[in-house]
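Predict the assembly for these two chains.
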Amino acid sequence: MISATHYLILSLILLSLGLIGVMMRRNFITVLMSLELIFNAVNLNLIAFSYQLGDLSGQILAIFVITVAAAEAAIGLGLIIALTRLRNTVNLDEVHEMEG
Amino acid sequence: MDFLVAHFAELLFYFLAGLTVLFALGVVLFKNPVHSALSLLATFVTVAMLFIFSHAEFLGAVQLMVYAGGIMVLFLFVIMLARTEGIQSEAAFLSNMAPAAVVGGVLLGALISAGILLGVLASGHGNPAALEMVDGARLGNTEAVSMLLYTKYLIPFEVVSVILLVAMIGAIVFGRKDRFSEVGKEEVDS
C-alpha cells in the first residue's frame, strides 16, 4: 500500500536536490530550474495529503502554487535576459554590485 | 508473476519515484544548461504521472501543459538567447560545494525523519471517491476541482490572476531593450 509517507520521502528528496542545486550551481538558469524542483516537491506534498485526507483543498492549493511558479519563472527569465544584456554573463558570482 | 500482479501499484510508484529522483539529479549535476533543461522536462513528466497516480488527474494535465508545455519552452528560449558557453568552467560549477553538502545533508536527514513521523501520525487510507464528488454526485476530478475553485476559492483565484498580470508586466519591463541601453549610456557618460 502506497501511503503518504512514500510521497513525503520522495518530495523531501526532490526538495533537498533543489536546495543543493540552488546553493551549488552558479549558473542563474540552472538555479531557476532547481527552484522549479522545489515547487514540484511542494506540489507532491499537497497532492499526497489531499489524497490521504480525501480533501480537494490540497489540489486547489497546488494549482495556485503552479501559477505562482509560472510567474516566478517569467520574472526570473526576464532578469536573466536583462543581466545578459547589461553584463553579458549568467554567472551569479560575477554579479555583486550590492556586495551581498 | 503473482507478486507482480499483487504489488503492481507499489512497483509502479517505485519505478516513477526512482525515475523522478534520477532526472532531478540530472538537473543539478549536468554541466550543460540544455541537458539540465531536458532533464527537468523529464522530471515534470514523471511528477505529472505521480499526480495522476494519486487521483489528481486534472492537476496532472495542468502540470503537463503549464510546466512541460509553457515553462520549459521559456527556459529553452532563454538558454538560446543568453549564450552561456563561457561560464561552464570547473570553477563556475560546484563553487560552494562543502557548505552546501553539509547543510543539504543535515536538512535531508532532519526532513526525512520529520516526514516519516508526519506520515505515521496522519494515518488512514486514501479516499479517491471524495476527490470526485460534486454536491453528492460522483462526476469526476476536473468537475470537483472546478466546482471548488469557482465557489469556495473564488477570491484567491482572482488574487492569483492579479499576481500573473504583475509578473507579466514585470517581465516585459525587464525585457525591454531601450531601458537598459540608456542605463549603459549613463554609465559611459559619468
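The helical segments of chain A are 4-24, 28-53, 57-87. Chain A touches chain B through 75 residues (CB under 8 Å).
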